[in-house]
Amino acid sequence: MRGLGTRTVLYQQNVATSLGLYNHDFISVDILREKGPITAGELSKLTGLSTGSVTALIDRLEKIGYVRRQNDPSDRRKVIIVPQYENKEEVSNTYLPLHTAMIKLASTYTPEELDLITQFLGKASTVLEEQIHHLSSIARSKSSS
Amino acid sequence: MRGLGTRTVLYQQNVATSLGLYNHDFISVDILREKGPITAGELSKLTGLSTGSVTALIDRLEKIGYVRRQNDPSDRRKVIIVPQYENKEEVSNTYLPLHTAMIKLASTYTPEELDLITQFLGKASTVLEEQIHHLSSIARSKSSS
């Protein structure tokens, strides 16, 4: 699990570098891709970044066309961040070799085995999300004391 | 898989922040912990960082006592980087809540299921390692052209 974690981090850093992005910027785009449009406040919570850092990050990403700000159609007082990078060919091209290799790996398992693995990955994901909240709340209480 | 990847990256960034380390420095310590003592050249290959960046990184980590340089006992012309941070209480304390939560998650599976999951994680790890080499070799050929 930890070996996979280390390699995941390194892989993402290499993807970010090859796209010419800061690593943190890139991860935020990835969260938006997964969660869909969310507010800056929600992005701050999910990344553990301060709201100031998130504002600067959205500015950078908007400038290069990876996201755009938009009024929330369901609540016009809110501004949501809409991911735009799915259509960017450089992004999908960068991920393609990993995608292909992972599909090849998955094809060596039965549907029942893949179910079990997917379920485990989902639960491990939830555990990590809780741990991120835990660490960032400790960091916040330290910096405010 | 991608959702877990994103959270892994964010988790590691939050761990690095809470230990007051640069994220890349932290990941390198983590690789050393997994691989054991290796040379700067090997660390460069595993992280996708240039040899110059790796030298600066080892300097920073040596200064705060996370690693030390040492002559390789089996080949005295070689210098290896020895991880030192296992004994650091701040590191183990930071990881403890994740460790506990993951053991709790693992305990809900049978030994056979855990075998399958572990085997999958190992293979996914290898796939990612190959992809890191792939991306960093593209980056190198770009920067040298």
UniProtKB/TrEMBL annotation, chains A, B:
The keyword 4Fe-4S does not apply. Keywords: DNA-binding, Transcription, Transcription regulation. This is MarR family transcriptional regulator. The keyword Ubl conjugation does not apply. Pfam families: MarR. The lineage of its organism: Bacteria, Bacillati, Bacillota, Bacilli, Bacillales. Residues 1-126 form the HTH marR-type domain. It comes from Paenibacillus radicis.
